[in-house]
Amino acid sequence: MKTVLDAKDLVKTYHKGKSMLCAVDHVSLTIHQGECLGLVGESGSGKSTLARMITSLVESDQGTILLNGKVHMVFQNPQDSFDPRRTLGDGIMEVFRNHGVSKADAKQQMNKLLSIVELQSEMTSRYPHQVSGGQCQRAAIARAIAMHPDLVICDEATSALDVTVQAQIIRLLKKLQKESGISYLFISHDLALVQAMCSRVAVMHKGKIVEQGSVSKIIKHPRSDYTRTLINSAI
Ligand SMILES: Nc1ncnc2c1ncn2[C@@H]1O[C@H](COP(=O)(O)OP(=O)(O)OP(=O)(O)O)[C@@H](O)[C@H]1O
């Protein structure tokens, strides 16, 4: 099976005055094509820093990242994916235009994407603040998959949405995975969501991966105390 991400021994330390914080502490991760790997851990455990290292938004101090294909990110706040002064349509079209696609072709490809993410085409003339969170997240997903990435990192992508919209977005992500073989790194603090989305999970605590393996196995037989606490707090 093709590996889309092979990250080895990643380290990121933040310096604040004289103190140092190791946000990501010798982390290794592998994701295969078509796989959804869950990444769980409490707030501040280093999940977003790790995601940003993989997408080169944060520079690593140490380690190697091998990416087989393109990677895109979907953020917690869907509005963050778009410029507030431009329409959603312009935001999606920009991806194609940046890759040298003509305006007419970009429009045609955007319309295809809209039907994939089940978003009405009239939404493209609206600004991010003029649509609901769920509609904006669908547009953000359209933008993320526009250039056919092999890996999409969803960083708490459904956390800001209410539960019914959350379920719709999860269904959409699963549909995309099934139809186009996209792989996901699915970051969440919600174990039930991870269970619905992923077959494998990595548990992060204080910058370290404390265990990883099949979701059902880890939930049934957690090995670390921290994972046990996480499971108990989810019940
Ligand atoms: N740019 C930065 N400068 C200094 N410290 C940072 C920076 N970014 C993150 N940190 C710190 O690194 C640690 C890990 O943060 P990170 O955002 O990666 O955690 P997280 O698990 O994604 O948390 P959350 O679930 O709340 O988003 C935290 O203690 C955070 O305060």
UniProtKB/TrEMBL annotation:
UniProt-listed Gene3D superfamilies: P-loop containing nucleotide triphosphate hydrolases (3.40.50.300)
Keyword Nucleotide-binding: yes
The keyword Cell inner membrane belongs to this UniProt entry's keyword annotation: no
Gene Ontology molecular function: ATP binding; ATP hydrolysis activity
Family recorded in the similarity comment: Belongs to the ABC transporter superfamily.
SMART domains listed in its UniProt record: AAA
Protein name per UniProt: ABC transporter ATP-binding protein
Domain of life: Bacteria
Ranges where the ABC transporter domain occurs: 5-231
Organism: Blautia liquoris
Entry-linked Pfam families: ABC_tran (PF00005)
Sorted UniProt keywords: ATP-binding, Nucleotide-binding, Transport
PROSITE patterns xref list: ABC_TRANSPORTER_1 (PS00211), ABC_TRANSPORTER_2 (PS50893)
One GO BP: transmembrane transport
InterPro entries (alphabetical): AAA+_ATPase (IPR003593), ABC_transp_ATP-bind (IPR050319), ABC_transporter-like_ATP-bd (IPR003439), ABC_transporter-like_CS (IPR017871), P-loop_NTPase (IPR027417)
